[in-house]
Specification:
Distance between the termini: 54 Å
Shape: globular
Number of helices: 0
Helix content: under 10%
Largest sheet: 14 strands, parallel
Structural class: mainly beta
Number of strands: 14
Strand content: over 45%
Length: about 270
């Protein structure tokens, strides 16, 4: 059967702190089910298990551990049907299938420091959501995703309302795809994004009302810097830097696109 380390269900006003150490578990280390008004802090160490932290049907969750370390897991952190959720703190994930998974969410803020190494499928991913924020004025986001050669670093599908705060910073190294947004609407994409050694740097497709205004989006040593496919009402500003890529930017079947900003191309084949 499935065994969870700590399982909290059908509860209100939940607070978790201190040290939680989970090893060799057939389920989740810490699991919340139908919980409202929860604060998760302290130190969570999880090794060799299915899921480090799992939250299902939660409302008003503040996840901010001083240390959340997951090694050798299927999903380091998963959120299903969450509303008004903030995930921050210090998160370090190594040897996982997927770092952070969020499905069926409303008002999700990702902040803090997130480091993901050797993810097999996705670094951060989700679908069927509304109002997704990467960082905010009050809570900065720093992300590093590396050594995940066959994985997509950031992937979201069917999400309405995506914001990357100007203060957000992400570095993505050695992946299949850096950022992939599919069927996304009403996106304000800013921040600093540095992608190196990817087959696809940035891929946005089947989406509409997309605004790209980064402080800097840089793609290096990759096949395609940016691929925008079937995007309606697209506008760009800010700074884009494409270095040593085969194709810098590819637009395909885009409608009502307004391209501006500073675009720097160095050692590009096309």
């Amino acid at each position: 059967g499935t065994t969870n380390g700590v399982y909290i269900a059908t509860s209100d006003e939940v607070q978790v702190s201190g040290l939680l150490d989970f090893q060799n578990i057939s389920g989740a280390g810490l699991a919340l089910d139908s919980v409202t008004n929860a604060v998760i802090e302290g130190t969570i160490l999880a090794y060799s298990l299915i899921v480090g932290f799992s939250a299902f049907n939660v409302t008003n969750l503040h996840f901010a551990p001083s240390e959340f370390s997951v090694i050798n897991a299927s999903n380091a952190m998963q959120l299903f049907r969450g509303s008004n959720v903030t995930a921050s703190g210090q998160c370090d994930f190594l040897d996982v299938q997927l770092g952070i998974l969020a499905n069926g969410f409303t008002d999700l803020l990702l902040a803090g420091n997130i480091s993901i190494t050797n993810a097999a499928v996705y670094g951060i991913a989700g679908e069927n959501g509304a109002t997704l924020r990467f960082g905010s004025v009050a809570q900065r986001l720093n992300v590093t995703i590396s050594n995940s050669r066959d994985a997509t670093a950031v992937y979201f599908r069917a999400v309405d309302g995506v914001t990357i705060d100007p203060s957000a910073f992400a570095e993505v190294l050695d992946v299949e795809t850096g950022v992939d947004f599919d069927h996304v609407t009403n996106a304000e994409l800013a921040g600093t994004l540095v992608i190196s050694q990817a087959r696809n740097g940035i891929h946005i497709h089947n989406s509409q009302d997309i605004s790209m205004r980064p402080r800097l989006w840089s793609v290096r040593y990759s096949s395609i810097g940016g691929f925008l496919d079937n995007v309606t009402r697209l506008s760009t500003a800010g700074m884009f830097n494409m270095v040593t890529v085969e194709t810098a930017v590819l637009f395909e079947s885009c409608e009502d696109a307004h391209v501006a900003g500073l675009w720097l191309f160095n050692e590009t084949a096309s």
